[in-house]
């Protein structure tokens, strides 16, 4: 991210209010850095045959937008955003290795004739998922899976409330609420984020 003029806090506010142009702008802004990090870490030629940097980058942004929409992150500066996205990218790349090298699907045993067909089918499925699941639909699905209190926290976070204000409103420790909410979003997010 070479441009420092982008207003991250405003883009995140727009994303939370359901403006897809803001999500697209943020994606275009961050994509080169994320893909460079993923390519650096994606060294196994066997894994690269079935997962490339674009697959993982899309998963990173999918996961990020899901959590931003739910009010999980507080980010104001481009450097904070980059650190967070690169951390997610490292974790997703590690997950891709673990998933693809699991005993039953070990990509090192994939025959080269099957590679192109399998990759084409998987990319087609991902495109269908991306086409069908707009961010608003994804957030609705996330909200359906939240408990009543978690839903209330998500609503307050999207309205811009800080954790200390949420704690005062709900009569609980801000740190306890933050941790509980974070765990819930992570758990639900894993079920909504595409697997490799």
TrEMBL record:
One of its GO terms (biological process) is DNA-templated transcription initiation. The keyword Signal does not apply. The keyword Isomerase does not apply. Gene3D superfamilies: 1.10.1740.10, Winged helix-like DNA-binding domain superfamily/Winged helix DNA-binding domain. InterPro entries: HTH_Sigma70_ECF-like, RNA_pol_sigma-70-like, RNA_pol_sigma-70_dom, RNA_pol_sigma_r2, RNA_pol_sigma_r3/r4-like, WH-like_DNA-bd_sf. Residues 125-159 form a coiled coil. Keywords: Coiled coil, DNA-binding, Sigma factor, Transcription, Transcription regulation. GO terms for molecular function: DNA binding; sigma factor activity. It comes from the Bacteria. Residues 7-191 form the RNA polymerase sigma-70 ECF-like HTH domain. PANTHER family: RNA POLYMERASE ECF-TYPE SIGMA FACTO (PTHR43133), RNA POLYMERASE SIGMA FACTOR HI_1459-RELATED (PTHR43133:SF8). Belongs to the sigma-70 factor family. ECF subfamily. This is RNA polymerase sigma factor SigD. It comes from Blastopirellula retiformator. The lineage of its organism: Bacteria, Pseudomonadati, Planctomycetota, Planctomycetia, Pirellulales.
């Amino acid at each position: 991210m070479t441009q420092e003029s982008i207003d991250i806090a405003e883009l995140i506010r727009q994303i939370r209010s359901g403006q897809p142009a803001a999500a697209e702008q943020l994606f275009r802004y961050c994509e080169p850095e994320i893909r460079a990090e993923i390519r650096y870490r994606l060294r196994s030629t066997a894994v690269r045959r079935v997962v490339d940097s674009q697959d993982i980058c899309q998963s990173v942004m999918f996961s990020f937008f899901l959590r931003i929409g739910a009010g999980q992150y507080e980010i104001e500066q481009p450097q904070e955003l980059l650190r967070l996205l690169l951390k997610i990218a490292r974790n997703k790349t590690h997950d891709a290795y673990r998933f693809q090298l699991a005993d039953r699907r070990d990509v090192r045993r994939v025959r080269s004739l099957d590679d192109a067909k399998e990759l084409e089918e998987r990319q087609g499925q991902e495109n269908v998922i991306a086409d069908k699941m707009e961010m608003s639909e994804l957030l609705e699905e996330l909200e359906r899976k939240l408990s009543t209190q978690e839903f209330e926290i998500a609503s307050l976070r999207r309205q811009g409330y800080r954790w200390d204000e949420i704690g005062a409103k709900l009569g609980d420790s801000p740190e306890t609420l933050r941790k509980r909410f974070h765990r819930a979003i992570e758990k639900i997010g894993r079920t909504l984020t595409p697997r490799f």
